[in-house]
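Example record used in the benchmark description.
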Amino acid sequence: MKPLAVIGNVNVDLILGPAAPWPKAGTEIIVDHDELRVGGAAGNSALAWDGMGINFEIAANVGNDEFGRWLREAFGERGEKWPVRPERTTLSVGITHPDGERTFFTTRGHLPRLSLADVLAVLDGSTLSGGYALLCGPFLTDDLTQDYDALFDWADEHRITIALDTGWPLDGWTNDNCAATRGWLSRCGIALMNEVESTTLAGLDDPADAARHLRSHMPDGAIVIVKRGPDGAIAIDRDGELVAVAAPQVKVVDTIGAGDVFNAAFLAALARGEMLSACLTAGTEIASRAISTLPRSYGELKASREAAR
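Model output (structure tokens):
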């Protein structure tokens, strides 16, 4: 199996809910569920890998407070090398709603101070050579994002394929954000985006057309994945062909981090040599399991009979 790593935003999530209707200012409501857990796109993907029993590396940073210490402890040896920054740890309070959707309130905290030096202090390029690095949260990790060219150079030097999940920009898909993303995609071998992100960035209504458009900005042989929630997932493969899979029907409990779980399962299957359709199936099945279980469960990554040898 090829090596795996994730780089980017790890923070604390406090999940409360469900809440409906939205309370008026100055009032208080009682909710049935609360959970304090590791969050952030990189953190969610790492937890999924850990839950599936997949070996991986993770590069992140934390703030210099009790939440920072808690995050490092949650990752054991993997968190020991994480730099501690002189800011409070980023905290997201997620309010869930009865339909499975959510609303976030997030502090900026330590995330903007994640730097290239922080990443290279944790990850060994030789160890990861020939593998995949999932890059998350570019619109949150300001210092690192400014050095993406150097990060991509480091990845190229060690034959590490970057899989990019941009997330939604805090100020929306402005012209500058679109231009920056197209530049990042030009250095990435895999794009992992949800349907709204891909169609908005491409300026096209059809997700397959949007995926093809995004792939036109990427290197030859790149793969674009569009996560479509209950409608499954599609991909444009290395030859430009469309691949699509359906998602299992489940009763949704909590959709927070569903796309991040998909990313983890997809890349784990890809690293194991599965065909693209099997990788998409792994992503949809494990993400569906995660969002329909409480406490959250991931299950094992199943091997297909079509796995490459």
